[in-house]
Amino acid sequence: MNTKVFAYDTTLRDGSQAQGVSFSVEDKLRIVRKLDELGIAYIEAGNPGSNPKDLEFFRRLGELNLQHAKITAFGSTCKVGANPAEDGQLASLLGANTPAVAIFGKTWDYHVTAILRTTLDENLRMIRETIAFLKAQGKEVIFDAEHFFDGYKANPDYALQALAAAVEGGADNLALCDTNGGSFPDEIFAITQTVVARFPGVSVGIHCHNDCELAVANSVRAVQAGATHVQGTINGIGERCGNANLCAIIPNLQLKLGCEVIPPANMQTLTTLARFVSEVANMEHNDKAAYVGGDAFAHKGGMHVDAVHKNPISYEHITPDTVGNARKILMSEVAGRATILGKINEIDPTLTKDSPETKTIIERLKELEHEGYQFESAESSFELLVRKMLGKFTPSFELREFKVVVTEPSGNGINSSAMLKIHVNGEDEITAADGDGPVNALDKALRKALDRFYPELRKVKLTDYKVRVLDSSQASAAKVRVLIESTDSESSWTTIGVSTDVIDASWRALVDAVEYKLAKS
Amino acid sequence: MNTKVFAYDTTLRDGSQAQGVSFSVEDKLRIVRKLDELGIAYIEAGNPGSNPKDLEFFRRLGELNLQHAKITAFGSTCKVGANPAEDGQLASLLGANTPAVAIFGKTWDYHVTAILRTTLDENLRMIRETIAFLKAQGKEVIFDAEHFFDGYKANPDYALQALAAAVEGGADNLALCDTNGGSFPDEIFAITQTVVARFPGVSVGIHCHNDCELAVANSVRAVQAGATHVQGTINGIGERCGNANLCAIIPNLQLKLGCEVIPPANMQTLTTLARFVSEVANMEHNDKAAYVGGDAFAHKGGMHVDAVHKNPISYEHITPDTVGNARKILMSEVAGRATILGKINEIDPTLTKDSPETKTIIERLKELEHEGYQFESAESSFELLVRKMLGKFTPSFELREFKVVVTEPSGNGINSSAMLKIHVNGEDEITAADGDGPVNALDKALRKALDRFYPELRKVKLTDYKVRVLDSSQASAAKVRVLIESTDSESSWTTIGVSTDVIDASWRALVDAVEYKLAKS
């Protein structure tokens, strides 16, 4: 096993094949900049032959002045019977003007004869001549050996001949692809070892897919077998079940196996980068993700929490700040007084665990949790609660009355509207709004009513709204918990409301969302 | 490697430690029934010692008449210095009256001295005597060796002594736990092999967590090293990054390695089961999940699609129907036309897959799924849809109008009421009701209005009500999906409604709940 390993990111190429993912040129430039800052060695940025609008992106990449990363353009071998020098797709690839290029070719005999519909020898010629042509243009060439593991299992001789053709053409790296994602760690290890031994002096890469939930393990095992390039994507995005997840592979290799993949100081930026890519891809960040998920270091049970406080190694495989993540002790009675006191001290540093105020707050917290509140995901509501109980809160408005009306059928189907009357600074304000459903109507009416008193609320948007039925066996009389996430584009905060009435629960969370913003301004 | 492998499901115990997961007794019973139908060998159903309300659940498990699964209750060794026969927690464990029990104990010397704060010998006594006590009560005993891999790496002699104590006590199975989720496939393989060789005649289990995104690989490698029990959860739910995912492990072992884990015919129900558990847990089903995700067999690139049509093996590691999944995301396709035709034939046995009616129904199903409907968990609504489209449905009533009013504050806080006017058999009926929230008020008003026309509805109760926000980034204007479960004490049925308005979505599900009952009577 080599300890120097190159991370090869294909978020912008293979990753963008995922359903629902589509990056603008500006998005791609931002992602490239962040990947470079992390210390990724190769960034496979797109396929200029299949996507001519990528050419603008490749042109603008020159502006970035990257520190670590080699930009790589992706294409395929020349067509059956064709001369690489006359292949338009290869011309586009060269037109991208990158230091490195990756080209994929067939290594599974079945694919050559049944899908490509040519002879096994012609496929070898295509690989060899395409790579030789690109090498003659001064490129570093990565050969993506498509379906290599399936091909090797079906016909090892031919799969190795295909790699040999790439090496004859001058390939710098043989990237072994488990294209269908069906291979197992022991197979990957053994086959990679064979390839490494067969082609000394040529670096070997690994490219896995997660169809058996084994992509991270397969990538790690390939490195343990001698591969030095690891292909993958941030958060494992990619088609079907995704590509191998670099956010797990990089810390696995570097923190657990002692490999050098990125500059050690950058490891602490991994969580931020992962969240950034989720955001740009407009995907919900996976809370359960290894290393970089919001719950990756969350502790619930009291015993675990005590033990982690005594010594993190007792229930944590690494300390969370190593990857820029944080321990999350759930804000509940099991979290222990120390955690809650920390929150209280942010508002009043003079209180101790024995202060009567502290005890009263903890009692109140327990009562609310029994009613269905859950403050671990709504710390802003908890902060407001503490402020109120310490007399450090002045409401920005008083509710006089609201009335929400839902009628069916109206002229255009269902119609929801809200009338709202509030009292602010000695004045009454009454207003109404309609909306997509009763909560939306109420939200709009509240903003409308507050607008002239608190113009700073204009920047605030609701970004997330979650409803959960707490005791669903009580059916439609069950309690509901509503969580609302808001942002003013600088920060975001989450508030909570619980009630047997979804409107009432939503109203409580809406009021907290507004009050929290006003308390902070 | 043994080819007979026992699946050990801990969704209801370790899985329910995950943030946001909380199952009602009714939920748990439904999950147990489905796990048994799949062919799971052991179902770890809860921890009766830590959660006294679980006793009702364990009592009711007796009603289920399970075919495959042994119900297992979970607890821990006796306390330091204590006699197992006098331990209240062990008494609760026995009170659960299950054929098998699992108890966890310490095997990492550091945990014994620093967290448990006792001597290494006392810990061995606790393990040995607790297991001997449980064996004397006639239980099958699984010893959950907490932190076994970390313990073995720190002090292999002591970790093996702890297992030896369990074997001396009479343990039937040694479940090796990677509690912190930090171990790697090669380590798991080598250490499991050592344990298997050391304790011939005792079966060995594996219990992994996904903190390095390696839990599935680690579990598979342990089986390859000789383990015969595989612990995990459906969809990998569990605290932090989750438990090992049985929905990947079971097909990996059975389809790829030739193990016998569940009856072969049941493999086709895996995707449905996985979706069912997501729905009951009120979690979004992971589209990217291996084998059972909605995107697991989705193809984007045209070339891939063509090749897959030529021959599935070209870009698929298995054919999707092997696990009850399908090449597209929609449930219509997931269930397969055969399944849908089966439903249609229940209503009209003369239709075939080529009938124009069948095609029209499938088209409509696809449209509704694009709108956010999901019929796997709401087959009663699907049946009504089919009846409507085949002209085999007469509505029991027509809605003339409803109006729901929510006011705050009234004399006693928030007040919700509903006025409803319907038309039945040539007569109008107008009524009103108030309730705990607008949906409950509407539900009560509808029952009141229908009462004199359809007295059989008096037996019907709503037993479950779930709300899911479909596109939470649209905040309070997002679409919501409502699922309502009803029962008449003989059978139960689930109906669905989708709308941007929670009241409207609930109304649709309520109407289906009533119509389904009346169509059946």
UniProtKB/TrEMBL annotation, chains A, B:
Listed InterPro entries: 2-isopropylmalate_synth_dimer, AIPM/Hcit_synth_CS, Aldolase_TIM, Citramal_synthase, LeuA/HCS_post-cat, LeuA_allosteric_dom_sf, PYR_CT
Entry EC no(s): 2.3.3.21
Catalytic reaction(s) noted: pyruvate + acetyl-CoA + H2O = (3R)-citramalate + CoA + H(+)
Keyword terms: Amino-acid biosynthesis, Branched-chain amino acid biosynthesis, Isoleucine biosynthesis, Transferase
Domain of life, source organism: Bacteria
Pyruvate carboxyltransferase domain sequence ranges: 5-271
One Pfam family from the record: HMGL-like
Pathway where this protein functions: Amino-acid biosynthesis; L-isoleucine biosynthesis; 2-oxobutanoate from pyruvate: step 1/3
Primary enzyme class: transferase
PANTHER family given in the database record: (R)-CITRAMALATE SYNTHASE, ALPHA-IPM SYNTHASE/HOMOCITRATE SYNTHASE
Name of this protein: Citramalate synthase
Species this protein is from: Uliginosibacterium flavum
